[in-house]
Design goal:
By secondary structure, the protein is an alpha+beta fold. It has 13 helices and 12 strands. The protein folds into 3 domains: about 120 residues, PAS domain (Beta-Lactamase, 2-Layer Sandwich); about 60 residues; about 150 residues, Histidine kinase-like ATPase, C-terminal domain (Heat Shock Protein 90, 2-Layer Sandwich), CATH 3.30.565. Helix 7 packs antiparallel against helix 8, helix 8 packs across helix 12 and helix 9 packs across helix 10.
């Protein structure tokens, strides 16, 4: 085996004795590598050519073409082909050359890989190229049957894709219907209820108006969850627009609104730490609304819910805790999937099971994660953790070598 290996020409021999001139130059033209074929054509040794500017070997016209066309084309296109120009032999006569080149980026810089032919040899190379093309066409003909089978499979795939597009279009149309035909009437009902609440009403009527406002709020949250669920199902995902927010103030403002929605329940806010946080404030409102509604629905009757907003150097925490019937252990692993519900307490306050799914998608859209712990002794806590701006910046940096 060793003797057979020794009988095979090395790569250096193939490079040096190739039937064409081979050069590697820096972007500015300095020759970094050259084969013996080119050296013999031009009349210089390798040592004389290395680090020499290739422009110094060109005729005056070729140097002008190199500056005005060759280099700009290499920079814009990354390659040139079939460029004819003259080189000057060591003894002074001109050699007509045909050039192909490509621009390559390496760790040490940008280089041009050049292949040169004498124009009188071009016909021979073209004949060889034609023979190679004919051989390739024969090979292609042998694979036509396989190609036809592939075309059939691709046709079926296109039909499947078209059907999926139709389903996505239908889902988008449903989104439009829900947005226009449900959200707008609900907003009108809520506005009318708010106007009624400002008038002098007896206690029973005022209580009825409060029920209307509460029900409309639940319906609006349900519509929002359905819209987000549909967007996730058709592959769009939940969109977020990050802006710097004062987390503690945002949570307190959200709780002020939710106290009006859940007047019979105490909502407690605990604060820890200070720092920057970038998030979509509307989505955080939605996240907290879903978690608070979940805590009220499945917590102890007339019980309280505690919201903790905590900021540290490494992460931002939003946690919602309530007491009440614990979540069955067998449900916890799938709790954030759509249409999954917890216990049967307070059934009248439950939604269709999209709230926690939407919470998970909002947290994921902020590059965070959400977990739940639940026991009879300690109650139930949903904890959403998000990376801080500093953590995100560090994660975007390339690793050190």
């Amino acid at each position: 085996m060793a003797e057979e290996s020794d009988s095979i020409p090395s790569s250096d021999i193939l490079f040096d004795d190739a039937a064409c001139g081979l050069l590697l130059t820096a972007e500015g033209g300095a020759i970094k590598r050259v084969n013996l074929t080119f050296c013999r054509w031009i009349g210089y040794s390798k040592q004389e050519l290395l680090n020499r500017q290739i422009q110094t070997l060109m005729s005056d016209e070729a140097r002008a073409f190199h500056q005005t066309h060759w280099l700009p084309l290499m920079h814009v296109q990354g390659a040139i082909s079939d460029v004819k120009f003259d080189l000057v032999h060591r003894d002074g006569h001109l050699i007509s050359m045909m050039l192909n080149g490509i621009r390559c980026e390496h760790a040490s810089g940008i280089f041009h890989e050049l292949t040169l032919f004498k124009t009188r040899d071009r016909n021979r190379y073209e004949r060889e190229l034609l023979n190679a093309r004919m051989l390739a066409e024969r090979h292609l003909a042998n694979h036509l049957k396989s190609q036809r089978a592939l075309d059939v499979a691709q046709g079926k795939l296109r039909l499947t894709y078209a059907a999926a597009e139709d389903r996505a279009l239908f889902a988008e149309q449903m989104i439009g219907i829900v947005s226009h035909d449900l959200r707008n009437p609900l907003a009108a009902i809520k506005m009318a209820a708010n106007l009624l609440a400002r008038k002098h009403l007896d206690s029973k009527t005022l209580q009825t108006v409060g029920h209307i406002t509460h029900s409309v709020g639940r319906a609006q949250r349900l519509v929002a969850d359905l819209l987000d669920f549909t967007l996730v199902q058709v592959g769009r995902g939940i969109a977020v627009t990050r802006e710097p927010v004062d987390l503690h103030m945002l949570v307190e403002e959200c709780l002020e609104e939710l106290r009006l929605v859940f007047p019979g329940h105490e909502l407690i806010h605990q604060i820890a730490g200070q720092g920057e946080f970038s998030a979509d404030s509307d989505r955080l409102y939605q996240l907290l609304g879903n978690l608070i509604a979940n805590a009220i629905a499945y917590g102890a009757p007339n019980g309280s819910a505690t919201v903790e907003s905590r900021i540290s150097d490494e992460e931002v925490i939003l946690a919602v805790h309530n007491l009440g019937t614990p979540i069955p252990e067998e449900l916890i692993k799938d709790l954030f999937e759509p249409m999954i519900r917890g216990s049967h307490d307070n059934a009248g306050l439950r939604s269709i099971g999209l709230g926690l799914f939407i919470v998970r998608e909002i947290v994921r859209a902020h590059s965070g994660e959400v977990i739940v712990t639940s026991s009879a002794e300690k109650g139930t806590t949903f904890t959403a953790s998000f990376p801080t701006l500093t953590t995100l910046d560090h994660s975007a940096e390339p690793p050190n070598d």
